[in-house]
Amino acid sequence: MKRFGLMGGLAALVVLLFLGSLMAGKAWVPPGAWFTNDPGWWIIAELRLPRAILGLAIGAGLGLTGAVLQGYLRNPLADPAVVGVSSSAALGAVAMIVIFSVTTPLLIFAGAMGAACLSMLLLAGLAWRAESAVAFILAGTVLASLSGALTAFLISVAPNPYAVAEIIDWIMGSLTDRSFAEAQLAVPFIAGGCALLLLTGRALDALTLGEAAARSMGMRLDRTQLLIVAGSGLVVGASVAVTGVIGFVGLIVPHLLRPLTGARPGALLLPSMLGGAALVLAADSLVRLAPMAGEIRLGVAMALLGAPFFFALLLKMRSSAWT
Q1: What CATH number did the domain enclosing 113 receive?
Q2: CA–CA distance from 77 to each of 81, 159, 276, 301, 311 (Å)?
Q3: Which domain holds residue 64?
Q4: For 254-282, how does the pLDDT look when each residue is reduced to its tens digit (9 = 90+)?
C-alpha cells in the first residue's frame, strides 16, 4: 500500500509539473488560453509542448538509468555518465560540427546517436563474459576518458570560432527551442532503453547478496550487463543527442527516493523514473523563470544543484566510514 501511495504521489507530481511546464516562461500562458484562439496557444503547441515531452522522457530515462547503475555497481555515487555513453554521444555531435561543419540539428542528432551506439557496442564487447561489476565500471571509465579527451582535442583544433561557441553552448545542455521532430527522434530510443533497464530488477535484487549468490540463484549476470549497457546507451545517447549533457539526474533522484522505497534496488526503478521526470520538468521550468535577459542552460543549473549534492554524499560516506 505504501508503494502504491508513493507511485500515485509521484505520478500526480509529474502531471502537475508537466502542466506547469506548459504555462511557465517569460510569457505566462494560463490554462484559460489553451483552448481558445489566444496567441499563447501557439507558444504551447510549437515551443513548450515538445520541450515538456522531452523533459519528461529524458528525466525519466536518466532517473531510471541512475537507479539501475547504483544497484548493479553497489555504488551510491554511480551516475549514467559512468558508462561513457554520455561523453561518447557528445563526441559524436562535436565531430559533426567541427569535422563536417554540420549545423542542422537533425544531423547533429544522427552523429551523436551514432557515436552512442558505437560506444554501446564497444562497451558490450569489453564487458562480454566479464561478470564482475569492477570490470564493467573500468571499461566505462576508459571509454569516458577517451571520449572526453577526443572532444577536447576537436574543440582545440576547430578552425571556426563560431563553431567553438556553438559546441560550448550545446555541451552545456538545454531544452530550449527543441521541436516535435527532435522529440519524435529521441523518445522512441529512450522508451526502448527504459524497457531494457526495467528487465534488470530481479537481477539487481539478487546482487544485493553478492555476485556468487546471484549466480547460484540462476541469474545470468552477463545478460544483465548487456541489458544495462544497451539500455543505458539508448537512454543516455538519445538524451545527449537532442539536449547536450545534462548531468546529476541519475545521481540525485535515487538517493532522494531510496529512504521511501527501502533497500531493494528493484523497488527503486519505477519511482526513479517518475522522480527523474519530475526533477527535470521542475528544473526546466525554473530556468525559464530566472530574472535575467537570457535563459540559464539546464545542464548548468543541474550541475549547480548536483555538485553540492555530490559533495554532501561524499562527506556522509566519509563520516560513516569513520564511525
Answers
A1: 1.10.3470.10
A2: 11, 38, 16, 19, 10
A3: 53-309
A4: 999 999 998 899 999 999 999 999 999 99
